[in-house]
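tokens incoming
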């Protein structure tokens, strides 16, 4: 009967959203619902943490695995860019 019920996710729904949540792709209502579910559900909280670590590990592989040689070139280029741009960049966060 609660109007809140509409915003409650099942675990299955949460799992389907979790990658979008990590990538910050959820719209506000879904993100709130996901966060509310996390508050109630230890299982999904642990699952989210697991997925986060997996995603981080995959990114680490992409950074340091087969791309090692290119990475050195990229880093050198990046340093030049930074020297050029004088703090105009948006940090070392996500990039495409
Ligand atoms: Zn759950």
């Amino acid at each position: 009967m609660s109007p809140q019920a509409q915003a409650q996710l099942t675990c299955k729904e949460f799992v389907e959203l979790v990658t979008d949540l990590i990538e910050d792709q959820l719209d506000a209502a879904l993100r709130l619902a996901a966060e509310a579910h996390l508050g109630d559900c230890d299982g999904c909280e642990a699952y989210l943490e697991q997925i986060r670590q997996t995603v981080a590990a995959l990114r680490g592989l992409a950074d340091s695995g087969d791309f090692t040689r290119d990475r050195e070139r990229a880093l050198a280029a990046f340093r030049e860019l930074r020297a050029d741009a004088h703090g105009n960049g948006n940090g070392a966060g996500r990039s495409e």
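note: Residues 42-64 form the longest helix (23 residues).
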